[in-house]
Every structure is written in structure tokens, then in C-alpha cells.
Design a protein that fits this description.
Shape: flat
Number of helices: 20
Helix content: 55-70%
Number of strands: 2
Radius of gyration: 53 Å
Order of helices and strands: HHHHHHHEEHHHHHHHHHHHHH
Distance between the termini: 158 Å
Length: 574
């Protein structure tokens, strides 16, 4: 038995086992059996009776629980299988449900696909045979197309395949798609989504041995059917876009030009895709349309309009603009388009012969060009100042000027400085002119201060403090500037935080030791007092009070009277 035959037998056994389990353990017995049989391991398209059973379970009349169970079963079937036949038949069932199902199923499938990512199988492969390998690659492309189809439905809010053509009296009574009557904002959103869907459709081109497989060609026929409606919608949208192009703002015109260019490129690729499909067996049942590319001469007119278009935009919002474009680098595309338009305009300007300017003698005084009114600076820096304001600024600037040597007054101003209030002598130092401006530059401090004048002010202040201390205290205070202690100045500053903490710890330790010593002394005295007789205890208490100085600190004012009234008795000398 060959490997291919063994795999077919194993697949048939798995299908029959699942059908048997569904008959006994499933609440949705008929639906489970229909899904298993529609997606079995037999290399043939799903049977219609099984598809009709699944379609009936997903109609609007059925409970939403049945629809959710159908979607969940198909998603589980696609994610767990490693056989390309089962995967492809599952995708065909989902495609048929999206095409032939009602709008409620599309909404439910869209909401479930956000949570489960049903159609995203980028790592699927079946390497059991060369045919399986080639078909696995096409299965991944087919899944990407279906995923983009769901995303396009999210943007458009309707299915392109189910959209009915409308007859418009303005278009000679011919039937057209919905994009022919869309406004500008909606059209700039819908056309990029449709172009992305068409790009995914063109990429669904089988290669290798998958080209001759009947099951692959069955799925490819479903894709080809939708390509006609998608291209028709894009073509009608381009016609509508061109009609409104010369009324658009600049931003919208740039987007419209990019959509117009992309439509021409996709028309070439779609024509090549149709030529490829015509060589397949499925081409017998199809009548391929003849595609015409948009005229390239119209691009020149569109690019010239962008240079003169207004800047206001008619788009809905920035978010919808970003989601509508098919490319990820929207801003780069817009910049490249603008640069291309500017380069072409410059080349044309260079190619045209330049006219010779008239001579200056021909211009009269009346024909002299006047300067155009320009918008002034936001800070009004070019505005002429009032004469009073200019004089004030000049005087303020001269106030900070550095006075040269020899230009200052030589009169003494120390009396004027100290005639001011004592608290304002620092201000007088800054405001009053210096008498030492002729000194060398070494005596000058930052800001124009004079070092000698500053020292004289400190000396006069110290002298006044000495006079004040003699007047109030009667003793002359020592000059703090003549102290021999080199650390006198540093004692006025607080020590660092770590030094303060160490000093506090030493003080606490010293205080604790003193408390311990006093406590031990009191304990020893109490023990001695307990062992002494009462008389001795009273005498020691009196002696302790006398030694400790526990008498009345304010004195007894009546002690002298008592002593005079009761003089001490003198002993009888013998």
C-alpha cells in the first residue's frame, strides 16, 4: 500500500469517526455532520446538500447561537487540520457562506474574526507530496484574499458581489455600481479598500502542479467571478473621481491622483492575470472582459492642478484617511507625489524660453514696482519705535556702560554714602559713582564694583559698631576682623548634617551616662539609709541637705528676729 493510499484511508477513517461521535454526543448533530462531510478528505468540491444545510443554519431566522456554533466549528476545523484538502474545502465553504449568506452572517463572522483570527493561517503547510506542497501555498493566498474580503466589507458596509447595479439617467441609462454616485469623502475611503482587495485577488495565481488540480480550479473560479464586480466598482469610482477632481482640495487631489495611478497599474496586472487564466480548463465557462487603461495624457493635467489646488480638505477625519489608503507609508507617498509634480513643473519652466526683461531706462518713475504688502513679524521687530521709547532704551544702555579710566570724578563721596540710612549702604554702593575708577583693572570686581571702596565700607561699618558697643555697654568690643583665630568666620556657619547628627548622638550618650550615675548614687544612698538607725538617718538627712544647699534659696526674713529673741545659751566655763 502506497503512502498516498494510506493517507486517504486514514482520512476517511477520521471522518467516519467524527460523524459517529456527532451522532451521540453533539446537540447540533445535523450541523456537525454536514460540516464534517462538506470538509472531508475526499479530493472533490463540497456537495451542495451539505452546503445548503450549513447555509440554513446561518440564516437570519435561526438563533444567533446556531450561527455562532457554525462559525466556531468551521474555525476549529481550519485551525486543527494539516491536510490541504480539508483546509481548502473549509475555505470554500466559508467563501460560499460569505457570497450567498445574508448580511447578519457577515456581521457575525466579522465580529468573530476579530477575536479568533479565523482566516489567518500564514504557517499552514502540507509537505506529504509535491502536489500538497504547491496546493498549500495556494491555500495560504486564498485565505489572505478571504480575509481582505472581510476587511473590505467592514469599510464599505456592503458586499461588492451582492451589490446590485443601478441605472442612472445621466449615464445613458446604463447600469453602474454604487461607487458612481458616492460623494468625495466616501469615495476616497472606498476606492483604496477595493484596490487592496483587487491586489489580493490578482495574487491568487496557482503555481506548479496546483494549476491542474480540479479542486484548486474550482476555488479559483469563485475568485474570478468576483473580479469582474470588483473591477467594475473601481472603474465607476475612478470615473466619479475624475468628475470631481478639479473641485477637490490639495490633500484630496493628491490622494485622488495616487488612486488614479494605481488603477492604471492594476489594470495591467489584472489583464495579465486574465491571460493566465485563459490557458486553464476553467476558462471554458468564462467570458473575460477587455480592459482599457486610463489615458496617460490626463495625468499631466491632474498634476498641474495639484500645484494650484486650495489647501482645505473635505475628508471626514484623519483616522479614516489613514485607514483608507492601501499603502502603509501614506505620508511618504504624498511627499513623493508632490516632489514629482514640482520637478516636472520646474523642467517645463526650464524648457520654455525666457523673455528678456525690459531695460531700466524704459521704466518710468510711475511704473516702478512697489513692494508687495507682506505679513509683519509676529513679534513686530521691524516696527519703528517711538522717539521717546528709543531715548529711554539708549539711556538704559548707557547706564550699564563701563567708564574708562580718568573719566570719573575725584571728589570724595564717603560722607554721602554714610549719610544714607544704615540699612541702605549696600544700595549706595551700587548706585553711587566710584572714586577709584582710575585704579588698575585688578581692583575691579564683577559688575563694576571697586574692591577698595568695598573694603573701606566694611571698615567704617566695623568702626560704627565699636562706637555703639562703647556707648551702650561701656566696654569696647573687639574687632571681629582682627581676630587671631583662623576659624572665627567659619564658626558662624552651621556644620554639615552628618556632623550635627554625630554631635547629637554624643550629647544623648553623655546625658544617658549622667542619668545612670545619678540613678546608681540614689540606689546606694537608699540602701545605706535602710541599714542605719533612725537617729543616724535623721542626722545624715540634715547633713545631706546642708551639703547639697537645699535651704530656702530666698532666705528666711524672720531668722534674725528669732535669733535675737532667743540668743544661744553660753556654757558655764569651768
Amino acid at each position: 500500500m502506497g503512502s498516498g493510499t494510506w493517507r486517504k484511508a486514514y482520512g476517511a477513517l477520521k471522518d467516519s469517526t467524527k460523524v459517529g461521535l456527532a451522532n451521540f454526543n453533539s446537540e447540533y448533530k445535523d450541523l456537525d455532520i454536514a460540516i464534517v462531510k462538506a470538509t472531508n478528505h475526499v479530493e472533490c468540491p463540497p456537495k451542495e446538500r451539505h452546503l445548503r444545510r450549513i447555509l440554513f443554519a446561518t440564516t437570519v431566522n435561526r438563533p444567533r447561537a446556531d450561527v455562532a456554533y457554525s462559525i466556531c466549528s468551521l474555525a476549529r476545523r481550519l485551525s486543527k487540520t494539516k491536510n490541504w484538502i480539508v483546509a481548502l474545502k473549509t475555505l470554500i465553504v466559508i467563501h460560499r457562506l460569505l457570497r450567498e449568506g445574508d448580511v447578519t452572517f457577515k456581521d457575525d463572522f466579522l465580529s468573530y474574526s476579530y477575536r479568533g483570527n479565523i482566516l489567518q493561517i500564514p504557517h499552514f503547510k502540507d509537505d506529504s507530496s509535491p502536489l500538497a506542497w504547491d496546493c498549500s501555498a495556494w491555500v495560504r493566498l486564498y485565505a489572505q484574499y478571504l480575509d481582505e474580503r472581510v476587511e473590505c466589507f467592514k469599510v464599505l458596509k456592503y458586499d461588492v458581489e451582492a451589490d446590485r447595479l443601478l441605472k442612472l439617467p445621466k449615464a445613458s441609462g446604463k447600469a453602474h455600481s454604487r461607487t458612481r454616485t458616492l460623494p468625495c469623502a466616501d469615495l476616497l475611503d472606498h476606492l483604496p479598500a477595493l484596490q487592496k482587495l483587487l491586489l489580493r485577488l490578482i495574487s491568487c495565481q496557482p503555481e506548479g502542479t496546483a494549476c491542474t488540480n480540479y479542486l484548486v480550479q474550482y476555488a479559483l473560479a469563485l475568485v474570478l467571478k468576483e473580479s469582474f464586480k470588483i473591477y467594475c466598482s473601481i472603474n465607476d469610482g475612478i470615473i466619479n473621481l475624475v468628475d470631481m477632481y478639479f473641485e477637490m482640495a490639495k490633500v484630496d487631489a493628491i490622494k485622488a491622483l495616487e488612486i488614479y495611478k494605481r488603477s492604471g497599474q492594476q489594470a495591467e496586472r489584472l489583464s495579465a492575470f486574465y491571460d493566465y487564466c485563459k490557458r486553464l480548463e476553467l476558462a471554458r465557462t468564462f467570458q473575460f472582459p477587455t480592459l482599457r487603461q486610463p489615458p496617460s495624457s490626463f495625468l499631466v493635467t491632474m498634476e498641474e492642478y495639484i500645484r494650484e489646488a486650495p489647501c482645505a480638505s473635505t475628508s471626514k477625519s484623519v483616522d479614516t484617511e489613514e485607514q483608507s489608503l492601501p499603502s502603509d507609508n501614506e505620508y511618504e507617498v504624498l511627499q513623493e507625489t508632490e516632489k514629482a509634480v514640482e520637478e516636472e513643473t520646474e523642467e517645463r519652466a526650464d524648457a520654455e524660453p525666457e523673455e528678456e526683461p525690459p531695460s531700466t531706462s524704459e521704466l518710468s518713475e510711475e511704473d516702478e514696482p512697489h513692494p508687495l504688502p507682506t505679513t509683519g513679524d509676529l513679534l513686530n521687530l521691524d516696527e519703528e519705535l517711538h522717539p521717546m521709547i528709543a531715548d529711554l532704551e539708549q539711556s538704559n544702555a548707557l547706564a550699564l556702560a563701563i567708564v574708562g579710566p580718568g573719566s570719573g570724578n575725584n571728589t570724595s563721596i564717603s560722607q554721602d554714602l554714610f549719610a544714607i540710612d544704615k540699612s541702605g549702604w549696600e544700595l549706595a554702593l551700587v548706585t553711587a559713582p566710584s572714586i577709584h575708577t582710575s585704579q588698575p583693572a585688578g581692583n575691579q570686581l564683577a559688575g563694576g564694583f571697586d574692591k577698595l571702596l568695598l573694603e573701606s565700607l566694611y571698615e567704617d561699618t566695623a568702626r560704627q559698631q565699636q562706637i555703639a558697643s562703647v556707648t551702650y555697654t561701656g566696654s569696647v568690643a573687639s574687632n571681629p576682623f582682627d581676630s587671631n583665630d583662623p576659624f572665627t568666620v567659619s564658626s558662624s556657619f552651621a556644620p554639615p548634617s552628618n556632623v550635627q547628627l554625630a554631635m547629637m548622638a554624643q550629647q544623648q550618650q553623655h546625658y544617658y551616662q549622667m542619668q545612670q550615675q545619678e540613678y546608681y548614687q540614689v540606689q546606694q544612698q537608699q540602701q545605706q539609709m535602710v541599714m542605719m538607725p533612725p537617729q543616724t538617718y535623721q542626722q545624715q538627712q540634715a547633713q545631706y541637705a546642708t551639703n547639697a544647699g537645699l535651704s530656702n534659696p530666698f532666705g528666711d526674713p524672720f531668722s534674725s528676729l528669732v535669733t535675737m529673741a532667743n540668743p544661744p545659751k553660753q556654757g558655764n566655763p569651768h
